[in-house]
């Protein structure tokens, strides 16, 4: 008996030690459950609209706690700003999700002062004898007396907002045109036919209160139902009585959102550019010893995960429709990892063996996804090549140009240079940098003029029609 227990323990130790541990991870996650952005369900209070709910906070608390256990060798017992980096979109629900994420990771711990730091110096310049008296009661093990995690989340500024909001104004006005085209193209009509029975049944339940007649309507009511389900609410219009219909609506909602955001290849390339470029920079900087962040975390939206998954080919219109057909036929899903990124979904890139032969693994909600010609593990160089190709091998200037960022031809320097056309002696880095700076200045000036004059009539017309939709679609 003792020998058996010993052998079991030895096997456990071998398995534990043989499991490789990444040197760096990069996580992109969607905020947690929130209130709706449409008025299909009147049970929500106005103050709850778009805001993170307690359910959303709990989701990220748990997710953070799981990651802390899984990657304990990277997070450590105490937060260290040299090791951990968090960048959140400026929307409150993303910031709150990021904070909840950290609470889960650093439960009952906080940043510590250096062990040899004179604690009497860590005091405010407040003239009161009680200051020093309180300081004497504290140790260097915790910066905060009750170990609360402070707000250590970096919030994106306007110069980088395209990372989280790559579609719409001001960075990508062309996206308004593309998404309007997607609402009316042949594939949209095919999708409406495929989900026709579902929509007819939904309209019967709505009984004239609303009418679902296009992809935008599907996305609107779908997101409300997702919020209701996450909050364990009674569904409006008696939809609780038909769970199969709700599931069908979920498939329709997933496909409609994807087609609006990613129905064209240029969308799939551009919308994921900002975050994919940021991830590549984190990976290469860590490998080269220029950045020692062991963990880089990005708090965003479903559209951000959608964009990355679409660029990498993990999500496609075809696989979403195939899964719907399999579900309605009571068959096993042919693409189990092809699904909408629901609240608190995440993507993780693991980087291994940075000092020897760097390799990368990519996960969607903890499912290992095969990239790089179907391989579950890529070399770092293979992954970077794959990711760059997925975004059309563009840089920021290329992104702005393809997006039609507000400017005139007179304000843009030589477009051939901006496309990085090689000179006779190869690339001209100095010229590229100068031209890039000139272009960004021109774009900034153009944006100011654009904001003041709203001179682009075709875009302005679309903006007036779609601005509310774009605010809602950034779920």
What does this protein structure show overall?
The chain is of the alpha/beta class. It has one domain (19-113, 146-406, 456-473): Phosphoglycerate mutase-like (Rossmann fold, 3-Layer(aba) Sandwich). 49% of the residues lie in helices and 8% in strands. Strands 1, 2, 3, 4, 5, 6, 7 and 8 form an eight-stranded mixed β-sheet that branches. A hairpin with a 2-residue loop joins β6 (359-364) and β7 (367-369). It is globular and about 70 Å long. The N and C termini lie far apart (57 Å).
CATH fold-level assignment: Rossmann fold
- CATH architecture descriptor: 3-Layer(aba) Sandwich
DSSP strand (E) fraction?
5-15%
Structural class: alpha/beta
Topology order in helix (H) and strand (E) letters: HEHHEHHEHHHHHHHEHHEEEEHHHHH
- The strand count comes to 8
**Helix content estimate:** 40-55%
End-to-end Cα distance: 57 Å
Mean pLDDT: 83
Describe the main β-sheet briefly.
Answer: 8 strands, mixed
Overall geometry comes to globular
Radius of gyration: 25 Å
Which consecutive residue ranges, at least 5 long each, have pLDDT under 50? Answer: 1-17, 408-439, 441-475
Count every helix, treating DSSP H or I runs of 4 or more residues as helices: 19
What is the name of the CATH class? Answer: Alpha Beta
